[in-house]
Design brief:
Length: about 325
């Protein structure tokens, strides 16, 4: 079933080394041991899903940080000079090119870290298409959807590619990286099976979301996404856009409008009020905060599943 989008745009992992630059024997692309005093590779993530994935694959042999701080919205991240320096001094940089322009620029200037771009392994193949009757000329029309981690199978593919990069970077711990990857892929396969089983017979297959972050989830599990805003949550819908979404909700007997935790729910609640339907949380897992319904990727995904099963509803 096709997924409908209102636009936005990708992802990065990066690392910051704790030693002073004068003591730092920077490792370039392969086969070198960790330089940190504790023997761990320093990995910096551009935002949460890549941070979580890298920590799971790296396990006890890495220290992983994120350029996007907890509770911050990652789409329009601006890096400080300290952040840029962290990219430059990282052992490993993992990112999704095109998602955060400031990270793209920092990575271009990074000459020593091993750089991993998740884009190829994620197979980004969804683009934004406005809903029927929507704006003919939308700034994000045709833009690539970066939110691949909403499909656990795509996150597993990225993890596999990252594990190979880590094996080349740190061959002394290659067996550990392979073992960690196996455990991670088992967890993601289990999660995928839970989604497939729970969403196979929902009464309503349309997902009305505050922004277009769930296209890959919708495609994977036979649903259709209609976003109130585009691929980034700051996109401001016009009154005409809001009216069109409201009409879609009424025409398709949608029961719930989903909002998220990192941005204001006001637009979603406005549409819900107009259409006389309820609201609930569907978290794009772009970052965690104290309102997140879980402490890590797996817990929040399962909370999302519980909300979908209740609200769509699904037997």
């Amino acid at each position: 079933m096709p997924t409908r989008f209102h636009p936005r745009s990708p992802v990065v992992l990066v690392a910051s080394l704790s030693l002073s630059l004068s003591l730092l024997p920077l490792a370039s692309c392969g086969g070198s041991a960790p330089a940190a005093a504790d023997g761990k590779l320093q990995v910096e993530a551009s935002f949460y899903p890549l941070q979580w994935m890298a920590q799971r694959v790296g396990g006890s042999h890495v220290d992983v940080s994120s350029l996007t701080k907890p509770g911050a919205e990652p789409h329009d991240l601006e890096l400080s000079p300290k952040d840029v320096a962290a990219v430059q001094t990282a052992d490993v940089v993992v990112y999704l090119s095109g998602f955060q322009p400031s990270v793209d620029e920092a990575v271009k200037g990074a000459t020593d870290p091993t750089v991993f771009d998740a884009k190829s392994a994620a197979h980004l193949d969804l683009t934004f298409t406005p809903i029927e009757g929507g704006k003919a000329q939308h700034a994000e029309a045709g833009a690539v959807d970066p939110h691949f981690w909403q499909d656990p199978t795509r996150l597993a593919a990225v993890a596999s590619a990252f594990a190979r990069t880590m094996e080349e970077k740190d061959p002394a711990h290659a067996a550990a990286y392979r073992s960690n990857l196996k455990a991670l892929k088992a967890d993601l396969a289990s999660l995928d099976g839970e989604f497939e089983a729970a969403l196979s017979q929902c009464a309503n297959k349309e997902l009305i979301t505050s922004h277009n972050a769930f296209g890959y989830l919708a495609r994977r599990y036979g649903m259709e996404q209609v976003g109130i805003t585009g691929l980034t949550p700051e996109d401001e819908p016009s009154p005409k856009d809001l009216a069109q979404v409201t009409d879609f909700v009424e025409a398709h007997h949608v029961r719930t409008i989903y909002f998220e935790t990192l941005v204001s729910p006001s637009i979603a609640k406005t549409v819900a009020s107009e259409a006389k339907v309820r609201t609930d949380v569907l978290d794009p897992i772009e970052g965690l905060n104290d309102r997140s319904q879980g402490s890590d990727y797996l817990e929040v995904m399962r909370s999302n599943l519980a909300n979908l099963k209740k609200d769509q509803p699904c037997p």
